[in-house]
Write a structure and sequence with these properties.
With about 325 residues, the chain is mainly alpha-helical. The protein is built from 13 helices and no strands. GO terms for molecular function: glycerol channel activity; water channel activity. It is found in: Membrane. Keywords: Membrane, Repeat, Transmembrane, Transmembrane helix, Transport.
C-alpha cells in the first residue's frame, strides 16, 4: 500500500507540470526505498502477529503458573512464619496462630485467582471441570504442568526466603527433618488413621468445590470481582473448621510441588514415604475425588447450565432433537 501511495503522488506531481519523464520516474531509487520500508513494516507486523499469537496461546497457562506460584508464596509463607516463629531463637514472640494461618491461606487463594485471571490454580478443579463442565481435555495436561511448576517455584522462593530461620529451628545449617517439612507439604496429625485422613481431605476438597461452583453459577449472579473474595471466605472457613487434622491441602499441586522441593533441598525421601505414601492417597486422590463428587452432586441437583454433562445427558431435549427426521432430511 505504501508503494502504491507513493506512485500515486508522483503521477499527480507530473500532472502539475514537473519535467520528469516516465523513464526517470520509473528509474528513481525512491520507490525502491519505499518498497524496502514496506517490507520492513510487513516484517515488523509479522513479528508482532507472531508475538501476539504466542502470547494468546500461552496466556492461560502463564496465568495458571503465576496464580499457583502466588498461592504458594503467600500460603507457604504463612506456614513458615507461624511454625518457625514458635522457636524463641527465631522470634521473641510467636508471629501467628491457626487463625492467622487460615486467614493467610484464604488471602493466598484470592490473590492467586486474581493474578491468574480467574483460573483454576488447582488440578482437582481442572479435572472436575473437564469431567463435568466441558472444559477441553486437550488443555488439561498443560494446565496441570503449569500449576505444578508454579507451586514448585513458589515454594522454592519461600524456602530461600526462610532458609536461615529453618537452619535455626532445625539446630544447624543443612539439617532438615520432619519438624519443618510440614511448613511445605501437608501431613496428618498423629492421631489420624489413614481412613480418617482420607475422608478429611475428601470433605475439605468437596466443600471448596461447592464454594467455587456456587460463585461461578450464573444463576446466582455473583459479580466476577467478588469470586476471589468468596473463595477467601470459603478457604478460611475450611481451614478454621476442618484444617488442623491434615493441613487442608485441597490442591494436589499445592502439596506435591512443595513436597518435591523439600525432597530436593535435603529432606530426602521421608517426605514421600511417611504414613504409607500419604502424599498420594490424601492430598492427590482424596482431593480429586472430593472435587469430582461435589461437582457431580451440584450439577445433578442444582446447576441448570447447558454446559454440564448432566444437563446434556438428562436435560430437556429441543423440539428438533426429539422430533423424528423428515424424509427430506433422510
Amino acid at each position: 500500500m505504501a508503494s502504491q501511495s507513493y506512485f500515486h503522488d508522483h503521477s499527480s506531481g507530473k500532472a502539475k507540470g514537473h519535467s520528469h519523464d516516465a523513464h526517470y520516474v520509473e528509474s528513481t531509487p525512491t520507490p525502491r526505498l519505499s518498497h524496502d520500508s514496506t517490507l520492513n513494516h510487513s516484517q515488523e507486523q509479522r513479528k508482532e502477529n507472531t508475538f501476539t499469537r504466542c502470547r494468546s496461546a500461552l496466556s492461560e497457562y502463564a496465568g495458571e503458573f503465576l496464580g499457583t506460584m502466588a498461592l504458594c508464596i503467600i500460603g507457604i509463607g504463612v506456614n513458615c512464619q507461624v511454625i518457625l516463629s514458635n522457636n524463641p531463637l527465631v522470634a521473641a514472640l510467636p508471629a501467628g496462630n491457626w487463625t492467622s494461618l487460615s486467614l493467610g491461606w484464604g488471602a493466598a487463594i484470592a490473590i492467586g485467582v486474581w493474578i491468574s485471571g480467574g483460573g483454576h490454580i488447582n488440578p482437582a478443579v481442572t479435572l472436575a471441570f473437564a469431567a463435568w463442565r466441558g472444559f477441553s481435555w486437550k488443555k488439561v495436561p498443560g494446565y496441570i504442568v503449569a500449576q505444578m511448576l508454579g507451586a514448585l517455584v513458589g515454594s522454592a522462593i519461600i524456602y530461600g526466603n526462610y532458609v536461615h530461620a529453618i537452619d535455626i529451628y532445625e539446630g544447624g545449617r543443612g539439617i532438615r527433618t520432619m519438624k519443618t517439612a510440614g511448613a511445605f507439604g501437608t501431613f496428618p496429625a498423629p492421631f489420624m488413621t489413614a481412613a480418617s485422613a482420607f475422608f478429611s481431605e475428601f470433605l475439605g476438597s468437596a466443600m471448596l468445590l461447592f464454594g467455587i461452583l456456587v460463585m461461578t453459577d450464573k444463576k446466582n449472579a455473583v459479580p466476577a470481582w467478588f469470586v476471589p473474595v468468596g473463595l477467601f471466605i470459603t478457604l478460611f472457613g475450611i481451614g478454621a473448621g476442618l484444617g488442623f487434622e491434615t493441613g487442608f491441602a485441597l490442591n494436589p499441586a499445592r502439596d506435591l510441588g512443595p513436597r518435591i522441593l523439600t525432597a530436593m533441598v535435603g529432606y530426602g525421601g521421608q517426605v514421600f514415604s511417611t504414613r504409607n505414601q500419604y502424599w498420594l492417597w490424601c492430598p492427590i486422590i482424596a482431593g480429586c475425588l472430593g472435587a469430582q463428587v461435589a461437582t457431580l452432586v451440584y450439577d445433578l441437583f442444582i446447576y441448570e447450565g447447558t454446559d454440564s454433562v448432566i444437563y446434556k445427558m438428562f436435560g430437556p431435549r429441543s423440539r428438533d432433537d426429539s422430533a423424528p427426521a423428515s424424509p427430506a432430511m433422510v
